[in-house]
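Researcher: Here's a chain I'd like modeled. Treat it as a single chain, no partners, no ligands.
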Amino acid sequence: MKKTFFFLLFSVFLIAQKTEIIDLSKSIKDSKNSIRNFTVIDQRPDKAIGSVIFHKDQVNIVFEKDAVTDIQEWFYKDNKVRGNNDFVLLLESLNITEEKKEKYTIGKLEVRASTFIKKSDGYHFVYRKDTVAEVSSIKTPYLAQSLAKKVTIVLTDLIKNSYNKRAWDYNISESELPNYTTILKDKLDILKTGELKDGVYKDYYSFFTHNPEPDFVIQTNNKEIVTKAVKGEEKVPIRNFYAFVYNGVAYKVIPVGYVEIFRDEMGLFIEVKKEELFPENSSNYFFIGGGVVGLVASVVGNVAVAAIDASVAKKRRGMAGTDVSLDPFTGHYILPENFGKSK
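Model: Modeled as a single isolated chain. Structure tokens:
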């Protein structure tokens, strides 16, 4: 009788558990046909991804076989022609959790994965995704399906963006891969140098490696606002660069102008308001002749900003900025939790 009862409980447990398979069917075709070998290293200590509840059933989000097999087969299915590069995807974390609210549920996805080119001297970093995404049951009751799709979207974006990124010059060994962030950050000159090189930096890699574009001279307007960089007859608006250093001070170009870059023991950061990184109406900000121009131009704190009218500029002055870090591995902003929300 006890055996029968245990069997029934076990059967109910199995029935109550369902799975949602991550469908890796989006195209990751490498149009350059540059890759010879595609290798996935899954360094997650726990290979389980996570689960959510749907109609009282636990739904586990899983790969069809496993992360290494599925992602590698996905690549080779889309890329029949081989190139010369040995491509490596390092899966660092992949977690799905859910948070129950009073009347709804939030499904949360956390993904961190990086790509490398393997050469004779070791592994050269290319790109990474370090992403948190949320799905609310208010918008869709199918949390497991939505979260599984987001896994595919994140991995697709990582792989396809990596095709067009340059591999870093710095190399690390395979044994150093688990600690690559610390090792590579220690090699970045911009985080260590005592004197910054004046000039313009076309992208985040040139900025963090401290290599300005050669022979460009920064120019300002009659209000001492930096507007362009000039090289002979070539004139490039300052908005076309990632960052610049002027009179020994570093600045990050943002949608409404530029903001000073600061450095501490954790890395580089800017002090900025949400409205300056993500303007609600981008038509309020525009560039003329390479400079930041609006109906009212002003300098708010350390930000050269153009606003549509005086009331907007006044509102910005009355709002405290927030420290936003710059990711040396992507150049993206690392936004603090509740960024831009009123306390």
